[in-house]
Amino acid sequence: RQHEAPRRVKRAWVIPPISVSENHKRIPHLLVQIKSDKQQPGGVIYSIKGPGVDEEPLGIFSIDKFSGKVFLNAMLDREENDRYRLRAFALDLGGVTLEDPTDLEIIVVDQNDNRPLFRQDVFTGRVVEGAEPGTCVMTVDATDADDPDTDNAALRYSILEQGAAGMFSINATTGEICTARPGLDRETVGVYNLTVQAADMSGDGLTTTAVAVIYLEDINDNPPEFTKEEFSMEVEEQAAGVDVGKVFVHDKDLAGSPSWLAKFTILEGDPEGAFAIRTDPHTNDGVLSVVKPLDHEVRDRFELTVSVQNERPLEPSAPGSPRALATVRVRVRDVNEAPVFRENPRRISVLEGTPPGTAITTYTASDPDTHQIQTLSYALLYDPADWLQLDPHAGTVRTKRELLHPSAFLQGGWYIALLLARDDAEPPLSATGTLSIEILEVNDHAPQLQPPAGVLCGRPGRGGTLLLGATDDDRPPHGAPFHFQLSPQHPQLARNWSLARFNVTHAVLAVLAELPEGPYSLPLLLRDSGTPPREQQQLLNVSVCHCGRDGTCLDGALAAATAGAGITLGALMIILGSIILLLVLAALGAARVRGRRRALRKGLLQRSRDDMRDNILNYDEQGGGEEDQDAYDINQLRHPELFSPRAKPPLRRDAPLSSGTPMAPRKLPSSPSDIEDFINEGLEAADSDPSVPPYDTALIYDYEGEGSVASPLSSIVSSLTDEDQDYDYLSEWGPRFRRLADLYG
């Protein structure tokens, strides 16, 4: 079908836009009548299509198909749909189009049927107290669903209620709320609740309201103040780290803010720093505490001057406070205090051997309670050796028995005891004092010669010297250095002997003239360095031996035996017993080693008499069947010396040239790894045995004979099938075939 050229639409068929007010209540309402110029004898059929007719929302518009009148059938809402675009059609009775479809536009005219709406019911804003007029706080805004191009949506804002002060104003067009007057004080009014209104029709139409809440933010414009000028408190003496009491303050600023927190300072009355004050973070009060123990007997009252201020500095415009200082009076209460040993520990010195009952010291304590009359008593709390006795009233310490060295209760020469001092208050208090007693050494032991005997060469200058030493049971300074000398009672000794100092504990004995061999007894005088010194004469047994060229004794054993003249019989018996004991131990060790070697020589093949490998059957010879038990005895491998002749065995004439005769008896292998060599040697011995057949002799096998008690095994499968075979005879073959008899019988 060819497209026709656009034709000029007649003016009567062009329908201008139709306006209808929303919320029209006269329904049905004639909107317009359309008419086609091409009238037919039978008439024209009119129709409309589009939203509100055959599209959602349905049924709003309708048309009389014969007259062309368009009707409104329902109330319209401009906020839902502000216009409708329809298409109008003109047809003849046969359904042929008379006119091209034309547009029919219906415009919904707005009415003021919607109130303004605030975006939220409650608006919140903040501003600092003392803000200057004109300081903007917040903006409230509202919306109107009516046509924004009409006065129906023209909004105006106002404050309906804010209290009598009128501290805020609102911009009628924008809704911005600002301060209107000075004098905002959070401590007077902390929160402002404003009722704001929005009205359309430029303020003359429909209205709505909302609430604007304005909070004033705190600044430090109020200093803290003490609730009173004087505070009184009380604390016990000797108490430290405890709270004494509180000083109370008041601050009008916001609780918990830096403008509210207080800071306290002790200005006067505490030169020694016995008190401290801190802030209670919950109540903002000052807490006074004791940091050093107080003594009622020294000072029983304190008068402190305390100041208070905020953590944050005051605003310049804030007034000063006349109550930023307070006086705190603290009374120190007297309590019972424990006795005190002023000298603790007490150190004294006592000579060892001091007789019992000797007063060595008076160790007393003092009572700090000078304002109370109390009596002290004393007792021994710790006296491990039970050396002391104590006067319970005077505190005098006396010896109970002699204090002697050495003792397990002494620590480095000191004896430690503990004393207890107790008052008679209720309840009683006590103190412990330490008494350290130094047991002074007394020179009550003479030095002892060590050793008391020796051996030296009898020639002067060639080994004729002997080093002598001494020991002393006394502690320094009553011991070394020791003094050695020949006895003054025997001046003739100086012709043959001399003593020279070697060090503080030793001296050297030397021969001055050649002396004959033999024992000598020299009386020596030993003296220590104590005060007063102790000396003792002792005998030194010296054996002079025969000298060699190098100055040593030629026969050391003889010299030792000769020197034994100075050894006691008991010492000699101890030495001989020790030597015998060592010899017995050595003999036992040697016997144990020999026993281990003998056990190894018994061979590794010997395990037990019931060894299953006792017999090795010679299966190389096909003898008389099961009854042939001629076998080799394995004992030949275990004990070859029992079966090998001691004399050299005769050589076999048929033996290979490389065959040799092993030595008899063969040595048992020392380890399992040599068993192969051991067996090879046994084979070589067997090859050399003349009693066995030659190598080139044919073996003779025994004839087993004819017939057998047992049937041949081939009879088991001689039948064609298992059903034809009778297996009952298996039970007659003995216990070895009982299992087969159970399976097939």
TrEMBL record:
Region (Disordered): 643-671
Top-level lineage group: Eukaryota
Gene Ontology molecular function: beta-catenin binding; cadherin binding; calcium ion binding
A biological-process GO annotation: cell morphogenesis
Gene Ontology CC entries for this record: adherens junction; catenin complex; cell surface
Location of this chain's protein in the cell: Cell membrane
Annotated signal sequence range: none
SMART domains linked to this entry: CA
The keyword Transmembrane is assigned to this record: yes
Regions crossing the membrane: 569-591
Keywords of this entry: Calcium, Cell adhesion, Cell membrane, Cleavage on pair of basic residues, Glycoprotein, Membrane, Metal-binding, Repeat, Signal, Transmembrane, Transmembrane helix
Every Cadherin domain range: 12-118, 119-226, 236-341, 342-449, 464-554
Membrane topology qualifier: Single-pass type I membrane protein
Function as written in the Swiss-Prot or TrEMBL entry: Cadherins are calcium-dependent cell adhesion proteins. They preferentially interact with themselves in a homophilic manner in connecting cells; cadherins may thus contribute to the sorting of heterogeneous cell types. M-cadherin is part of the myogenic program and may provide a trigger for terminal muscle differentiation.
Protein name, per record: Cadherin-15
